[in-house]
Amino acid sequence: MTVLEQPGAYRPTPPPGWQPRVEAGPLLPDAEPYRLLGTAAAAGISPDLLTRLHRELVRGRRYNTQATALTRQGRLAVYPSSTGQEACQVAAGLVLEDRDWLFPSYRDTLAAVVRGLDPVDALTLLRGDWHSGYDPHAHRVAPLCTPLATQLPHAVGLAHAARLKGDDVVALALVGDGGTSEGDFHEALNFAAVWHAPVVFLVQNNGFAISVPLAKQTAAPSLAHKAVGYGMPGRLVDGNDVAAVHQVLAEAVRRARGGGGPTLVEAVTYRIEAHTNADDAARYRPDSEVEAWRAHDPIALLEDAMRDRRLLDDEGVQAARESAERLAADLRTRMHQDAVLDPMELFEHVYADRTSQLREQAAQLRAELDAEAGDSGKGE
Q: For 66, phi and psi rounded to 5 degrees?
């Protein structure tokens, strides 16, 4: 006899007035990733926007290659390249208003640069210098987040606080497909939906969480389908179609700002480079797969569409490349300058008032530095 078969056993049934809290149909993503370039709808895209997107894509690709080179030269400890994902990065960097906030992951330095952050400051953390490398409040860019998905609850908290204060602010939080397997992802989406927070989640599904393919992380039809479980819309978009990503994000930002609540956007893209310079991607994916995605390159897709509309010619391409080279040259020059470091800055900006433990550690470090300075002076 089972527990439910015992006399007087409780048999739960829905209450008489049970009904879905939210109709699921409008929340479900399309069956295929949304595309814009190469379709009839692309004719309605502003030429000025396409030109800006193209310029930032070309500069972004060069930024990635230059940062990768700096890593090989020992100027950066590590660099997680976003080559191949530039469309997501550029769209995220351009879609927000100045008063909005961007919450990046460690791979999203390009999005921060497109938003206006100095490229050197964006890489400062990755060279082991200072704290986040920049003032988050001044730029409305949260610190680059290395722990997976922990920036998502922060984005929800900021967006919810802004809404309570009556501030017209939207938070855009970026995360990779691997981050969707973290508890922080669940908690952030659940709180965002319950609180109706003005936040947009952009999942850059680049196929791998380091070496783990998406199929070993989830059995969901798509990551965008996860949105319905939290009561928010899910959008599925071609992550290499920069115009489509920009449009979908712009719609989600407008919805959030207008009181419509959060949206989960999944951009299907691909990580052309290895996870970082410390990773050997050849151990878990074939070259043929990478080459197939190179044929769907975001820069080539946009350039083809712009040439078809006579919005881009060889001179325009060359101008964008020259702008990119100037960015790379400036980055290269300044990153080759040795930073002047003060070890005592380890204790700055940790707490408004230092704890007793920090005061003790600071005093110990000061004593060691003074002793080293004294020893070096004796040897002169």
A: -70, -40
